[in-house]
């Protein structure tokens, strides 16, 4: 029988006394679309979060009140945070650098855009997506991969690490 | 061979279809099959029209409760008397009660089945170890564990007796309790049960309950103050229904509550300086309120804006001191399915009468209770949002039937109970002592108050089964809060647009809407967004507002104070509107299909006149319109002399008359054909030839599986546009591909399917004919420069002081 280690992870220190309030409104889920842009030979990555989640998450993470709709710093902070929580490996290599394109608030959603140039045909993709899961355990991040035949979906919950998909071009 | 055989058996088992009726040859799918086998058989309790039947019954459970709040120890002690009336045709030997406070005990099913680092877990986070990474536990989870070690959660049940004080046998199973009745309870009989109980009030922020206390350590009073929100705070008799008998499915934390209607008399003994907000009507205002407060409430009845019953200054003053005295507030509530309350000395209290008119409840007092932390945001918008909700919801259902509607600020993000709701958004404190709120927080407050007050209609009055079908209250309510929000200010992004749900609907990870609440993978999109989007589409696209609104109101009124099931909703919407919706319910609620309609091809056709003098000429023109041969063109360019030109003398008949030359043989045949036609056929042909319309055949395919109406936007060469609606029934005999003929006197230049994004079609690219280059979201973002002034932080930034620019010192 082995004893598993149970320690504080460093990043939890930034989260002061997390609470998880029930909100009939908070969704605690995000959607990411990874779309092959065949004409430009890029993979376009679009993350969509609910504003409601983002502002409350920032408050929990930073213990400070941020206005996500109006505060450019808050938007940049959250965008950077998500970029640190989302990683891709292509063809079973090490994680690739994703080009940051931008972020914006539109309606009730916060959008973050990233892109990768494709230099050789894709045979597989591995994804890790831990955004907001250290803030509230029930966060679920859904990823749709489009442009490689029928849509494929991956669902990232708290306990998931990397997930892999074999890709084939239509 | 043996292996093969085994495999085959396993395979056939795994594909067994629950449906008794199956297509066993070919791949035809009847998308319009009626829901015969899926819906329960109608009976005398629930009819085929979706109405309560002639013998519809439901139990009545009345409560008398005396509760004492111990502020110092944060605990509650109470004595309750339950009067249970058995209106069912069955004889009951025992009663089941729900003990939700036990959900927080270490031996509850919710706690024992909690998956460390698991999905869909409510409360603080934990992280599983993986590889060389250690497992993680957050401060929040640690706090929760420590809290449980220091505080014993759950009910302490004292005496359980009958009316005469004789002890009753009972057993507690997790968060449920069965009380055995000494005498069987026959139909139309009542019995009284007395239960003494107590429990430690949980710290909401530590354990993520739907109620609890919140501590404010920074208040002026030594030791700070608390807000107490009390819900699921007394043993409640489980529902007993015609379709499920005892609803004794234990509370696991998500699937909410299924309860019976009844009358309540509740006495709440709290510190003398507390203000209590509660389900029900205050019975002893003279004993607990000052003359001035009673006077202010009277003024509020006809005030144009909310009137303070307790002003911010008075509340702030109360925060500073404490008292050891208590007083008892008495509330009575009639015909409610639950009872909740809040108590604190911190509460500011405002009220405004909503003059609803009508016979049932002409005056409703809309009231808000909030600490100074709620600030201006609450003063301005809480009570007004309560009234706006009633104004809108009543139009779609029935007059608000209770005398009060309340919004209380505390530690709970948003939760509903009869006549009272808990709502979380607040202002932010700044170092200069001022308070401001973000634009998003303002929207959250208005949005959450509308949503939670809306829940008083669904499911507090239209009493759907939340534990089983979360969508029946969350979906209907999310749909209606979108309606109310858009009537508040349409520039705010309220509600659910069909486009919001497409990314979820096209994913492969989802369960049908018709899934029990505790088993749903992602409750947000499944129980809120998708059903709300479905209803929106039903109203705006499929049925139209007039039919939808009538049927929806009929549903609400039929099931007011009663217990509807999904089939009652489906049947009523169909029966009251006269629109066959089985295909819609099946596709949207019972499957995980999505909408993706593609326009694949358009063929342009012209009617043949049969007259050779016209048709042969047209054929000749068609031939001439074809591109000439490159070979011949190059020969011409090279100046090649043709043999026929050099030998003019050898030209004959065929050089003068080409293959399109009409002879009398064809003309005679045409005349004979006309002569053989029946008069009406001849007339039709003559008219068609004279009008010489354009005929277009459009080919569509259904790639997503979900059948929907096809919304067409036609653009003509002359610039005219036209919208056409092809009902979903076009797919009834060909669910995968259909063709449509369109006859027009104009020339068509392009066609778009669903140009307004109204049907949740997941692929916009194949909605255009001819295809268009559609920029991806990223392309569009790159192309646009953000100049959005709405997003500036004005409320706080306006206080920024002017500063001298820093001068950069440059060394010489």
Give the H and E element order of chain A.
EEEHHEEEEEEE
For the biggest sheet of chain A, the summary is: 6 strands, mixed
Largest interface: A-B, 66 and 73 residues
- What's the helical proportion of residues of chain A? 10-25%
Q: Tell me the distance between the termini of chain B.
A: 94 Å
Hey, roughly how much beta strand do the residues of chain A contain?
35-45%
Task: Assess the beta-strand content of chain B as a share of residues.
Answer: 15-25%
Structural class, from secondary structure content of chain A?
Answer: alpha+beta
| Number of helical regions of chain B | 23
Instruction: Return Rg of chain B in Å.
Output: 36 Å
- Helical percentage of chain B: 25-40%
Our measurement of the CA-to-CA distance between the termini of chain A, rounded to an integer number of angstroms, reads: 48 Å
Largest sheet of chain B: 7 strands, mixed
Number of strands of chain B: 34
Contiguous uncertain segments of 5+ residues of chain A: 1-24
Structure at a glance:
The complex is a heterodimer of chains A (170) and B (812). Chain A has 170 residues and is of the alpha+beta class.
Would you write up a description of this structure?
The complex is a heterodimer of chains A (170) and B (812). By secondary structure, chain A is of the alpha+beta class. Chain A is built from 2 helices and 10 strands. Chain A has helices at residues 51-62, 72-85; strands spanning 6-7, 29-37, 42-50, 86-90, 99-106, 109-117, 124-129, 140-146, 152-156, 163-166. In chain A, a hairpin with a 5-residue loop joins β8 (140-146) and β9 (152-156). The longest helix of chain A is centred in the middle third of the chain and has 14 residues, at 72-85. Mean pLDDT of chain A is 81; it is low at 1-24. Chain B is an alpha+beta fold and 812 residues long. Helix content of chain B is 30%, strand content 25%. Chain B contains 23 helices and 34 strands. In chain B, the strands form 9 sheets. A 7-stranded mixed sheet of chain B has the order 6-9-2-1-15-19-17. A 6-stranded mixed sheet of chain B has the order 18-21-22-23-25-24, sandwiched between helices. A 4-stranded antiparallel sheet of chain B has the order 7-8-3-12, with no helix packed on it. In chain B, α8 (375-396) packs across α10 (470-488), α9 crosses α10 and α12 (523-543) crosses α13. At the A-B interface, β1, β2, β3, α1 and β5 of A face β4, β5, α3, α4 and β24 of B. β1 of chain A pairs parallel with β5 (135-137) of chain B, so a sheet runs across the interface.
